[in-house]
Amino acid sequence: MGELVAMLQEDELQGAILAVLANKQDIANCLTPAEVHKALGLEALRNRTFQIFKTSASKGEGLDEAMEWLANNLQQKK
């Protein structure tokens, strides 16, 4: 089990949603979202709301989408 998955099993984080930013998508040979999913061991997450976003911070791509998703999901939890 990866460190991220282990951390998410802590009592304080039960029910927390997770947005993963797969950054540097503008660079050749970067990890795909599927590769990030596998590398982080996210297949072990059950009953957890999470999403992986392709981002490029230097180009400002994908960040707004990720923040909007996060805000919408946090609002739904209220």
Automatic annotation (TrEMBL):
GO MF term (any one): GTP binding
SUPFAM superfamilies associated with the record: P-loop containing nucleoside triphosphate hydrolases
A Pfam match: Arf
UniProt binding sites for GTP: N23, K24, Q25, D26
Keyword terms of this UniProt record: GTP-binding, Nucleotide-binding
Top-level taxon of the source organism: Eukaryota
InterPro entries on file: P-loop_NTPase, Small_GTPase_ARF, Small_GTPase_ARF/SAR
Keyword Zinc-finger set for record: no
PANTHER family hit by this protein: ADP RIBOSYLATION FACTOR-RELATED
Name listed for the protein in its UniProt record: ADP-ribosylation factor-like protein 1
Protein's organism: Heligmosomoides polygyrus
